[in-house]
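Batch job 17 of 40 flagged for manual review because the log was empty.
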Amino acid sequence: MIANPDNALTVSVVIYDSEQLELQAMLESLLTALMRLPVVGLHFAAHVSLVDNSETHLLRTMTFSDLESRFLARGATLNVVSGHGNVGYGRGHNLVIRSSADKYHLVLNPDVELAPDSLAIGLLYLEKHPDVAVVSPYAETSDGDKQHLCKRHPSVLTLFMRGFFPDWIKRLFYKRLAHYEMHDLPEDQPSDRVPLISGCCMLCRAGVLRAIEGFDENYFLYFEDFDLSLRLGARARVVYLPGMKIRHFGGNAAGKGLKHIALYTRSAWRFFNTWGWRFIQ
């Protein structure tokens, strides 16, 4: 039976040298979240694609047969997209975004675990608010601390300070960094008109996502989510939805070595050239 795209969700997860235990934890949480949808009256088919950007074809060495059968029992498909090499984060997601006709699309990182009711809360909100393009969840780190996924338009100084200053200096500039990370957003209700959100978990209205042709593939890694946020926000509302919860184990480009610092700097340069330079404020 062919699923009705008006009642379907596509999920894309771009993989690069991820650990099998991490992937399994993410998929287990996704499966649990999908199983909650019928409880709230959402009968959505789901199409989950793991996009293998690993140059070693990592996913070919992993076994997901048990998970595949459990996804199928839920009415969901789990497949691997591979053979294209390391084409970059945004382009990897676009391989799935541009081939889908489903109503909603979840951009998800392999280092994210979804709360059991996260998808139900997010999809119900999108169903009730057709003027919303994308929702961003409440996130916690592995230690249980809040991770601020929503941001205001950054300045060069703020990004440099956040990425490279030691913690004791950051504390001296707490107000600046808290303003950038939108610490003022309430946690008991949705907030709209959010400028920028993290790409680790973006639940999108797929028609709007396809209308802007997905991610800008000129970004290899970093800032492609900020660019996407602004282009989605030009079409419809970008919303922080604190009732939708995740745990995110990633982040900290500066701590990943010189290669990531170089990629971060190159993408930042493109972002500011596209959306305007702010050096101090």
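Reviewer: the log was empty due to a logging misconfiguration, but the result itself is present. Residues 258-275 form the longest helix (18 residues). Unflagging and moving on to job 18.
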